[in-house]
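Give me structure tokens for this 156-residue protein.
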Amino acid sequence: MNEMILSYLLAAIFSAIPAVGFGMVFNVPKHALKFCALGGAIAYTSRLALLDLHMPIELATFLASLLIGTIAVHWSRKYIVPRPIYTVASIIPLIPGTFAFTAMISLVDMNSHGVTPELIAAFIGNGLKAISILGAISFGLALPSLYFIRYNRPII
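Here you go.
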């Protein structure tokens, strides 16, 4: 039990670092950097917990980005800051870099060593997984803001 908590805590710490780094690259205000770090930690750790429950990575990423999108809508209203200030940096730990890299490496191998069924399968499988994860991130971030903007305005 303690090892699991320690692994989640380490994952949260190490996922907060790139979120803050990209927040600094995107000129996020200093007072919002702590929320970017917290958002990155929440997003990655929640996805990791869902993956430990044997959930597919696409669904786990969708639910994690849905969670961080909802939290970011709350933070943006509470601190009167635009929502992308929090969400853009917070989703950086969820980006499917390994799958996209493996797809591109298999594409380069097909170009240099010839086309084989294994390379085609690796390219298509990893490419589709990367695209699915990116779509899950996009929909997960868009749905909370669409819901709260649509249903919390008065109808005139």
